[in-house]
Amino acid sequence: MQKDGENVQSGPFKGMVYAGVTATEGSRLPRLIGYYERTLRPVIDEIISRGYPLVIDVGCAEGYYAVGLAMQMPQTRVWARDTNPKAQANCAQLAALNGVADRVKIGGIITHGDFDICSGQDTIVICDIEGAERE
Questions:
Q1: The sheet that has 77-81: what strands, in order across it?
Q2: Is 71 left (phi over 0), alpha (psi -120 to 50) or beta?
Q3: Fewer CB within a 10 Å sphere, N or C end of the chain?
């Protein structure tokens, strides 16, 4: 890594500032080199190409996907949800560092009723809640 070793070096979120943010799970290194969950790259590229007006990221962790998608889709609003207060704080920090805090709405538990916001607009839901998806 060079001087900009706190930025994502490649992949769909290349250029994302990742300074001072702790990865909620796993190592920071795969994120920084753009190799994190590499098998999802075609899916992420497709989401970006479609430019959904709304992204709902359930289980947002530190915000890697929420913030990365907000950066790549400037017209998109992102709902980033996580029940872990530390994850919410890290996501807020990451959004601020990357200039997208005004479009990333961070919160805790999401309920069925919250999905009413999807009505009348194309929305993509990303759900990664470590096996609790059925709850």
A1: 104-107, 77-81, 54-58, 123-127
A2: alpha
A3: C
Is 36 inside a domain boundary? no
d(CA 122, CA 119) in angstroms, rounded, equals 8
CA distances from 43 to 47, 90, 104, 110, 118 (A): 6, 24, 20, 23, 20
61 within a domain of the structure (yes/no): yes
pLDDT at 121: 92
**What domain range includes position 47?**
42-127
For the segment 24-83, what is each residue's pLDDT rounded down to a tens digit? 777 888 899 888 888 899 999 999 999 999 999 999 999 999 999 999 999 999 999 999
The three-class DSSP label of residue 88 is helix
